[in-house]
Design a protein that fits this description.
With about 290 residues, the chain is α/β, with parallel strands linked by helices. It contains 12 helices and 10 strands. α3 links the parallel β3 and β4. α1 crosses α6, α2 crosses α3 and α3 packs parallel to α4. The chain is globular, with a radius of gyration of 17 Å. The termini are far apart. The mean pLDDT is about 95.
């Protein structure tokens, strides 16, 4: 299935009754203009609510939904499924942060712990009855995630780059669809680099994961759809250290009283280091579920 900006527009209409149109925070730091998309204020605590909702509303309504997640996607699916009255089962690795596991169950989903990584949990989830909803490599999910960028473009057309944290690449892929010619920039931890490694190799490759942001950005391989869209868009892939991520997260709190999880601070870390291209970039703060 090929995707276009029309799919994002359709997703935005479909999910509008269920998700928040999150604020765009326009400020400055050390004399540099700064635009932040406050997506950590989204229902379920991250952008994942968008893709999950779109996938559940597109096509025939499922009797049951099953997914695997490092945490945020599971929360998005659990929250969306509860709003729509659909039973949900979420498989998570043993490394899932307790706060995320607790919130998945509180949202009404059945939680199953399996294996050490997201890939382990996903393998087990595929054997469970119900419609499987992929965390990032599914067209309806990608289109739903693209609504974040669509809101940015509508609110601030002067933006020339949209900067997102990347795990499996679903948010970044959706961003390419809605960016309307603006540059898509991905930011990953140095030791969780599924997107960066794939773009450098010219094909999806398996990577190791070891980062303070691994629960959100710990995909061991980029999604095929994300790889196709990011390659076609000539996306810029950046890396930051865990130390830079933690410092950026702390500064967001100290300077702006914005509390986000480590993954959400990755774009700000790259911006602070002067690595982000563009004169007027917008950084997406994607989640706050630690």
């Amino acid at each position: 299935m090929s995707l276009s900006s029309a799919d994002v527009t359709a997703a935005a209409t479909r999910i509008a009754p269920h998700v928040r149109r999150t604020p765009l925070f326009v400020t400055e730091l050390d004399g540099r203009p700064l635009l932040l998309k406050l997506e950590h204020l989204q229902r379920s605590g991250s952008f994942k609510m968008r893709g999950a909702t779109n996938a559940l509303l597109a096509g025939e309504r499922p009797d049951r939904v099953v997914t695997a997640s490092g945490g945020n996607h599971g929360l998005g699916v659990a929250t969306a499924a509860a709003r729509l009255g659909i039973p949900a089962t979420v498989f998570v690795p043993g490394s899932v942060p307790e706060a995320k596991a607790r919130r998945i169950e509180a949202a009404g989903a059945k939680l199953v712990r399996h294996g050490a990584t997201y890939a382990d949990a996903a393998a087990a989830a595929h054997a469970e009855p119900g419609r499987y909803l992929h965390a990032y490599d599914q067209p309806e999910v990608v289109a739903g995630q693209g609504t974040v960028a669509a809101e940015i473009v509508a609110a601030a057309p002067e933006v020339d780059a949209i900067v997102v944290a990347a795990g499996g690449g679903g948010l970044a892929a959706g961003t390419t669809l809605a960016a309307a010619g603006r540059r898509t920039v991905t930011v990953e931890p140095e030791h969780c680099r599924a997107v960066h490694a794939a773009l450098a190799a010219g094909a999806p490759v398996d990577v190791g994961i070891d980062s303070v942001a691994a629960s959100a950005l710990g995909a061991t391989r980029i999604g095929d759809l994300a790889f196709e869209l990011l390659t076609a868009a000539a996306a810029v892939a950046l890396l930051v250290s865990d130390a830079e991520i933690v410092a950026a997260r702390d500064l967001l709190w100290e300077e702006f009283r914005l509390r986000v999880e480590p993954a959400a601070a990755a774009p700000f870390a790259a911006w602070l280091a002067g690595r982000v291209p563009g004169e007027r970039p917008c950084l997406v703060l994607c989640g706050a579920n630690d």
